[in-house]
Amino acid sequence: MPDTIELLEAIGKDASLRHASADELAAALGEAQASEALITAAATGDKEQLAVELGHRQCDPPQVSQGPGHEEEPDQEDGDDTPQRSPAPDRDPSSTKR
Amino acid sequence: MTLGSHLTPLARSHIEQADVVFAALSNGVVEMWLERMHPDVRSLQPYYKPGKSRMKTYREWVQVMMTEVRAGKRVCGVFYGHPGIFAWSPHKVIEVARAEGFEAHMEPGISAEDCLYADLGIDPGRFGCQHFEASQLLFYERRIDPAGYLVLWQVALTGDWSLGRLETGPAYRQVLVELLNRDYPLDHELIIYRGATLPIEKPCVRRIALRDLPHVPLTAEETVVLPPATPLKPNSVIRDRLNALDKLYGTSTLA
Predict the structure, then answer these.
(1) For bias kind Acidic residues, which ranges apply (chain A) (predicted)?
(2) What is the helix (H) or strand (E) element at residue A41, kind and residue range?
């Protein structure tokens, strides 16, 4: 059985598959002998089986807030509401350690 | 950012050439995809804890990345979407690394904002477009221009001071609705948008009335777009000044 992650990457890269209908995508995955979980997810949008196949790895949305807040550790620098000057563009590499 | 579709060749090259890769991604499948590109991918997800301030987590991310930089490693941080948009630690770690004399830079990525313009058919140049984190609209006095698009990020977390929650709730969103109602009617149609993360998904697009915003399910990854509510108003004073300049200088290109 082909690797599910590799199949997902292949779909994401392929103009004919990325915006294919659910039926077309499921048919293509069937021909590629994809896992039932991936075919079901593509055909119906139900990703429960896919989550089981891939091990239910959950992620919190990263960086979900930039706003000020009450923190357990006050940080004067980062808690400042005043816009900061834009960082300098990349320095001359000769002036850096690496 | 969609798996397989939106990683630039240069970003992929940075990942592959790094000594160590740190990952802050919003999806476990995407994290598994990243692990195929490099043998030493270290997830930053475990630093999140329920009730812990996200700012504390983000400072820890900077420290853990800088530890490897100071050890002489070539370090690559991989962040969901664009690493510099709604992302504190990528900017901070670059600032810290440069201050300590290390070379550091950011590669742009394809953000939810980029996907939003494509999926919703919005051109921010047509009427103008303002972007705010929803809480910032409540915490500060800001000027909304209802003649342009208004894009509100992280509406699910509206009004959260703690930085420890992933959602607030209807009462908090009601405050936001009342603020927006100063510039928009309650029946103004807004769009709730989420881009596709897996390439087998379609973008999620819902249209509701402003008054219903507190009562619909909403996740931290969803973005709210308010289309213009008023037409562009000609600025006759400035137009008269420009016309006078045209008469003075002509309309040909100035040298």
Answers:
(1) 72-81
(2) helix A36-44
